[in-house]
Design brief:
Radius of gyration: 30 Å
Shape: elongated
Number of helices: 10
CATH class of the largest domain: Alpha Beta
Strand order of the largest sheet: 4-5-6-8-7
CATH topology of the largest domain: N Utilization Substance Protein A, Chain:P, domain 4
Number of strands: 14
Number of domains: 4
Order of helices and strands: HHEEEHEEEEEHHEEHHEHEEHHE
C-alpha cells in the first residue's frame, strides 16, 4: 500500500502526520497494520469457534472507496472478502495499537542509532529496576541493561540513583530488538572515568597504557606522557587529589585505584606495579615468572588482601610475580 494511493480519510492523514513527525517509514506502518489486522481476524474467528487451517493465506487492505479495512482470503489468483461483521471496531483498535507500537519502536531505534556513535564511552543513567540478574537503567529517552556480570561485585545501587555506565555494546535480543548493554565492571569503565576527569587523558597527552582491575576491590593503571614536562601520574591524581577523588566517588568505597608510571624497563615496571609497597628488588625473570624481594615490613602491602595486589600487579606487567622476603 502506498500512502499516495490512500483516500483523504482521517486515518490516512493521521498516518501521514505520524510518519512525518516521528520519521517512520509510511510503508512500514501500513505493512505492520496489515499484519496486525490478519492476526486480529484469526483471533476473532477463533473466538467465534471457527478453525482456520495453518496454510490458509490472507491479506488486509484499506478500501480506496470507503477508507475501511477489509480482510481477504487468498486462493491462487482469487481474493475472497472474508471480513466479518463489526470488524471495523477491531480494525480501528488494532491500527491504533500497531501505530503506538511503531512509534515506540521508532523512537527507541532512533535513540539507539545515536548511542551507536557513543560505544565505549560513558553515559549517565538512572537505575529503574533491579533483580538478581540485571539492572534496567534509564538512559535518555530509552533504557539499557546492565547484567549481573557487568556490575561491580557487591555494589548496591538504590533505585532512582544516577550513575555513570560504560556503553559497552548494542545487541539484538531474542525478539530481534536492539538493546543497549551497559557495564560498570569492564576495565574500560575506569579508563573512561579518567578521560572524563583528566583533560590530559582526554586529549591524549597522558596515555593509559595498561589496566588491571578487580571491580569493587582494586584497580591498577599504568600511565605515560607523550609530552615532555607533563607528569602523567600527577595529572591523573590532580591538585590535592581532586581528580582521583572525583573518580573514586563514582566507585564503591572499597575500591582503591593505584596510578603508577608506565615503564618499558620491565624491572622498573614490576617495582612500580607493586605499589604501594616500597623498597622492592627484582631478583630474576624466568619462564614468565618474576621473583622479587620485599622487606618484611612491606610484605603485607605487596601481597595485598587475599593476594590481590600481587595478582593485579602480575596482570599489569604480564608476568606471574613471586614474592620473597628480603634478607636483612
Amino acid at each position: 500500500m502506498d500512502l499516495k494511493k490512500l483516500p483523504k480519510t482521517e486515518f490516512a492523514a493521521a498516518v501521514a502526520q505520524i510518519a512525518g513527525e516521528r520519521n517512520i517509514d509510511v510503508q512500514s506502518i501500513l505493512d505492520s497494520i496489515e499484519f496486525g489486522l490478519i492476526s486480529a481476524y484469526k483471533r476473532d474467528q477463533k473466538e467465534r469457534g471457527v478453525e482456520i487451517p495453518e496454510d490458509d493465506e490472507f491479506t488486509a487492505e484499506l478500501s480506496p472507496e470507503s477508507g475501511s479495512f477489509k480482510v481477504f482470503k487468498i486462493n491462487g489468483d482469487q481474493k475472497t472478502d472474508v471480513t466479518p461483521p463489526g470488524f471495523g471496531r477491531i480494525a480501528a483498535q488494532t491500527a491504533k495499537q500497531v501505530i503506538d507500537q511503531k512509534i515506540h519502536e521508532a523512537e527507541k531505534e532512533s535513540v539507539i542509532s545515536e548511542f551507536e556513535k557513543k560505544l565505549n564511552t560513558l553515559i549517565s543513567g538512572v537505575v529503574l529496576k533491579s533483580d538478581p540478574y540485571k539492572m534496567i537503567v534509564g538512559v535518555g529517552k530509552t533504557e539499557g541493561i546492565c547484567p549481573k556480570e557487568e556490575q561491580i561485585k557487591d555494589e548496591n545501587i538504590q533505585l532512582g540513583t544516577k550513575r555513570w555506565f560504560l556503553l559497552k555494546a548494542i545487541f539484538k535480543n531474542d525478539l530481534d530488538k536492539s538493546e543497549i548493554l551497559l557495564s560498570r565492571r569492564d576495565p574500560e569503565f575506569i579508563k573512561q572515568l579518567f578521560a572524563r576527569e583528566v583533560p590530559e587523558v582526554a586529549n591524549g597527552t597522558v596515555m593509559i597504557e595498561k589496566i588491571a582491575r578487580s571491580a569493587g576491590e582494586r584497580t591498577k593503571i599504568a600511565v605515560s606522557s607523550s609530552q615532555n614536562g607533563v607528569d602523567p601520574v600527577g595529572s591523573c591524581i590532580g591538585q590535592k587529589g581532586s581528580r582521583i577523588q572525583a573518580i573514586l566517588s563514582e566507585l564503591p568505597n572499597e575500591e582503591k585505584v593505584d596510578v603508577i608510571p608506565y615503564s618499558k624497563n620491565i624491572n622498573q615496571f614490576i617495582i612500580q606495579s607493586l605499589s604501594p609497597a616500597q623498597d622492592i628488588k627484582v631478583i630474576s625473570i624466568e619462564n614468565n615468572v618474576a621473583t622479587v624481594a620485599v622487606p618484611e615490613n612491606q610484605l603485607a602491602l605487596a601481597i595485598g588482601g587475599g593476594g590481590e595486589n600481587v595478582r593485579l600487579a602480575g596482570q599489569l606487567v604480564g608476568l606471574e610475580i613471586k614474592i620473597t622476603q628480603s634478607q636483612e
